[in-house]
Structure formats: structure tokens, C-alpha cells
Amino acid sequence: MLYKAITLQRGKESSLERFHPWVFSGAISRYAPDIEEGDLVSVYSHDGRHLGNGHYQIGSIAVRLLTFDDRTIDTAFFLDRVTDALRVRQALGLMRDDNNAFRLVHGEGDFLPGLVVDIYAGTAVVQAHSPGMHFARLQIADALMQLPGAGLRNVYYKSETTLPYKAHLDPENQYLVGSYDTDVAMENGLQFHVDWLKGQKTGFFVDQRENRCLLEHYARNRRVLNMFCYTGGFSFYALRGGARLVHSVDSSAKAVKLTNDNVELNFPGETRHEAFAEDAFKFLDAMERDAYDLVILDPPAFAKHKSAIKNALVGYRRLNAKALEKIAPGSILFTFSCSQAVSKEQFRLAVFSAAAQSRRRVRILHQLTQPADHPINIYHPEGEYLKGLVLYVE
């Protein structure tokens, strides 16, 4: 099926012929006269060749291609794509008795640009990052409920903060299917409350699952500091790993409460854990030297756009320098950036600069990234966003 037409300038079709799913506004020579934000469109080369169908939006990224043929974008299309995505998660072994939390759809990585779906037990939390996906939300919910073997009972739509504000869509966070029944999910045998109603992202950061497992391996008998703890994922893994003590810090009192609730859920009456609602930089400034020998720095994105990269790198350097200055000899530092605009090389250079400033001997033990349920489309390298280093600090 062909939709409203967008025609590219001469020579601008090459990226689509390499299956990159974005069309930038500067590549377009002609729009259909009645085109509106969120419309399904068909993209053509300057000489009239059909290149694919996708969603149109106002902005630098004008079209996100969903298909490189003339396939109709309907419920059957979404069902095919989410079924393929589910098969990948089944192959990864993520659907088990001790694990019912994972990402089902990761935008371009699952060939559905502008869409994120996280699964928490029987609830799918859907986020639209483009107007087109917002308008398709009911088709997407219908497709999710038809997924064979997924066991979904509810679909919650959570896009109030993810859609372009200039689109004037006024999305409402709400259940599209079902209703609230439980907010408890499980990851690798550990339970946690998920605040998909009011929490960040979809309610939990499932992208750190494998990195939390690695932290658990290093936690035995260590004094752990989990900065930017959010709901405490690294903290309760550290406790299970045998940490001597775990301190969790977040500027949000609500996040600290969720962390305490999650620790209590897994370790009732635990005395090794304490949480603090405090600014990270102030906490590190006041922290006693040698108080911790395993530190996690997992801040929110310091740069959401390329224009903020310079300030973000200053922030990463300051944050890591403060931690490296204070932690005990023989410590391990887990440090992360989730800023897509910051490259692996830029982040590593910021941490290198912090290490040089601390004048301590530092070794890289691991270089970390996002897990396999956050796949990267090989034709869309921009999908690699999570970067991490595990350092041994003498």
C-alpha cells in the first residue's frame, strides 16, 4: 500500500538503500501537500523509485522508515514485528521462572523506530517516541495481546514525557488493555517494584541487568556505594553478592523509598543497607576518604542532544574525579554513560582525564554496553547508547 508521498533530492537515497531507517528533513525535495505530523508516508527517490514506508514528523528526523517495501502498516504488521522480537527474547533465555522482566521492543534495533516496549511480569509498558507510534498505539496494544506465549494481561501506555512537545499531542498515560494488578516483577531471581505510573522511563532500567550480575560477582565483603540508585537495582544485587554494607544515594526521596522497598522485598529486616536522599556531588564532597571500596556511578543522561556534549563531558569528568579521589586503594569503580550523543571514545576520554587528575593507577577490567534485549540494528549504529567501564583503582 502506498501512502502520502515524500520525494528526496537527487543522491539522497543512498542511506535508505543501505537500510538506514531515518530520512532527514534536509534530504527532502517535495512533500505531499496535505501531509500532517504522524502520517504514514511513502518515500521516493528523485526519479520516482519507491524506497519504503514510514512515519512522518516535523523536525530534523522527518521520516522513520518501518519497511523498505510497500507493505501495509497495520495491526498484522505490528504483530509480525513484535512476534519476531519475542522470538529473539526467547532465544536469549529471558523468559524463565526466575526472570519476567525484559525489553521486548527496542526501537530501530527491532525494526520499529520510535517504539519501546518493556515487559514486567504480565504487563507491557509501551512508550512512543514519535507521533506516528502514538497514533498507532491501539494497533500496537492489539498486537501485543495477540502475542503467542507472552502471557500478557495488561498494556500500559506511558508517553507523556517521550513525545515531541511541539507536536501538541497531549498524550495521556493510561491502560490501553487491562488494569493494575501488581507492580512486582522479577529479574534473575530478585524481585522489585516497578513504578510505571510515575517513575522514570518505563519504571525500571532493564538495560543494566547484565551489568548488575557482574557487580554481584565483585560485591563479596566490599563496602558498596550506589550513586544515582533510582530504585536500587545495583544495591540489592550487591546485597545478594555478599557485600559488607551497601549505601544507596539519589536526589529523589521517592526513588530512595522505592530502593528501601525493593531491598525489604528481597531481604526483610536487612541491616547492611542504608539509603540517602541527597545530591550526588554534595554526597561525594562530604564522603570520607576510603569509606567505600566498590562504587557505582550510573547517572541520568548528561547530554540528550549533541549541543550538550561539551557540558556533559565536563560533568562525567567531575563526577569520576570525585569518586576516584575518595575511594579506598584496591577499589572497583563501575562507571556509566547512557547519553546516546556521547560516544564510547568521548566517555572513555572523560574517565581517563578524571583518572589522570586523581594521579592514581587505574586498570580497565571490563568495557560494558547494553544487553542483548536492547539490540543494535547493524544499519543504525546510533542505537548504541549505553557505555560503561569497570576500573580497578590502586
Task: Name the descriptors.
alpha/beta; Transcription Regulator spoIIAA; 394 residues; Archaeosine Trna-guanine Transglycosylase, Chain: A, domain 4; 27% helix; Rossmann fold; 10 helices; 20 strands; seven-stranded mixed sheet
Description:
With 394 residues, the chain is an alpha/beta fold. It folds into three domains: 4-67, PUA domain (Archaeosine Trna-guanine Transglycosylase, Chain: A, domain 4, Roll), CATH 2.30.130; 75-188, RNA methyltransferase domain (HRMD) like (Transcription Regulator spoIIAA, 2-Layer Sandwich), CATH 3.30.750.80; 205-393, 3-Layer(aba) Sandwich (Rossmann fold). The chain has helices at residues 14-17, 75-91, 131-135, 137-145, 209-218, 233-240, 253-266, 280-286, 309-326, 344-358; strands at 4-8, 22-24, 28-31, 40-44, 50-56, 61-67, 101-106, 115-120, 123-128, 154-157, 174-177, 184-187, 190-193, 223-227, 245-250, 273-277, 294-297, 331-337, 362-368, 387-393. Helix 5 (209-218) packs parallel to helix 6 (233-240) and helix 8 (280-286) packs parallel to helix 9 (309-326). The chain is globular, with a radius of gyration of 22 Å.
